[in-house]
Design a protein that fits this description.
About 50% of the residues lie in helices and about 10% in strands. The protein is α/β, with parallel strands linked by helices and about 350 residues long. A five-stranded mixed β-sheet has the order 3-2-1-4-5. Helix 5 packs across helix 9 and helix 12 packs antiparallel against helix 13. It is globular and about 70 Å long.
């Protein structure tokens, strides 16, 4: 590792972050390499390695290590830019790819065209911690569902079709219907399903308390049909600062719920959604939209919009309608949040009737 001990406020530093080791490259204002090296991927080593370049611009790709690293660098006064990995294809396609070269490429792109790299927003440590509780609960829900499906599959192979049941009551309801030959295999699974349910309930109690104490704005979002405690809190934690979106409709694109585009000349094919951004939040919104369009959904402008799309027919009409409603649902929640207004289910319909009258 070679560098001087003076500070360089006009420096740009590229970081190629690995799980164990991080490579860095430092450019001056003339884009000349003045230092390069590597250090263990720890907070202490990061501070020590970059200390001589206080106030520099730091470019790193979004990844599993970038949240804590960007917070650490911002606290130290560096100008941090977290690049969208999809925007840095030149690194993946470099025929002479190496960690050392990747760090230099990031530095050069950041020094000349940082706006082309995108700028990934990382949550605060508190919001990230609360979101981890949400996702831990989601993991348990998926594990419980897999265990239930496995038990049903085992029994079906023995000619036993287990009755329908809620996941909470499943273990008790089917315990006496398990074939004797399956007891050794299935009894531990039934016990684990019960334990999963207890842990899920504990997580939900924690999340309810967190929402009540620290995120009261979730109550406003929950006025919308099919938006419950989980979706509202997850949305608040995912966005964190609603003012970073100049327009509410930008939230739909940020969550990957807008169609991709590949227009060239006279060709402008209709493509699938981009699926960029937060996959977990996108899944929750799609689930909420599906409930809204289901038989128990309440009347609203959003539900009417989705039902009209379904009525048009065509291949995959229901799926396309659900995605479209999910996008509008994200936009609506952001608008309610930032405007601090109450939800009116038939606002557009009532306004149109007033104008026509």
């Amino acid at each position: 590792m070679t560098h001087s001990t003076s500070t360089f406020p006009t420096m740009t530093i590229g970081l190629d972050v690995g799980d164990k080791k991080t490579h860095f490259c430092v450019l001056d204002s003339a884009r000349t390499v003045v230092a390069r090296g590597s250090f263990p991927t720890t907070a202490a080593a990061l501070r020590k390695a970059l200390a001589p370049f206080a106030g520099a611009r730091v470019i790193l790709e979004a990844g599993s290590q970038s949240p804590w690293m960007s917070r650490e660098l911002q606290a130290l006064g560096y100008a941090v830019h977290v690049a969208d990995a999809r925007r840095v294809q030149v690194i993946a396609t470099d025929p002479r790819k190496s960690d050392r070269r990747d760090a230099e490429i990031l530095a050069r792109l950041g020094a000349t065209m940082p706006e082309l790299l995108g700028n990934v927003h990382h949550r605060s440590a508190q919001a990230q911690g609360h979101l981890c509780i949400v996702r831990a609960r989601d993991l348990l829900v998926r594990m419980r569902r897999m265990a239930v499906q496995q038990v049903r599959g085992f029994c079906k192979a023995f000619g036993v079709r287990l009755p329908s049941s809620s996941t909470h009551a499943f273990s008790k309801k089917v315990a006496d219907q398990i074939p004797n030959e399956l007891k050794l295999a299935v009894d531990p699974l039934l016990h684990q399903i019960t334990e999963f349910s207890k842990l899920i309930d504990e997580y939900e109690d924690k999340l309810a308390e967190i929402a009540k104490q620290q995120y009261p704005e979730t109550l406003r979002l929950r006025q919308v049909d099919s938006v419950g405690p989980l979706i509202s809190l997850s949305f608040i934690l995912a966005v964190e600062d609603p003012r970073r979106f100049p327009k509410s409709r930008s939230v739909g694109a940020w969550l990957g719920l807008c169609s991709r585009s590949h227009a060239s000349g006279d060709s402008a094919p209709q493509l699938r959604i981009s699926k960029a951004g937060d996959k977990f939040m996108r899944r929750l919104l799609v689930q909420g939209a599906a409930r809204m369009l289901g038989p128990f959904g309440k009347d609203s402008d959003l539900r009417r919009y989705g039902l009209k799309l379904i009525a048009r027919g065509g291949k995959g009409a229901k799926k396309r309608a659900v995605v479209a409603v999910a996008r509008k649902l994200a936009v609506l929640m952001h608008r309610l949040w930032i405007s601090n207004t109450d939800y009116e289910p038939l606002r557009s319909t009532n306004r149109a009737q007033t104008i026509s009258a």
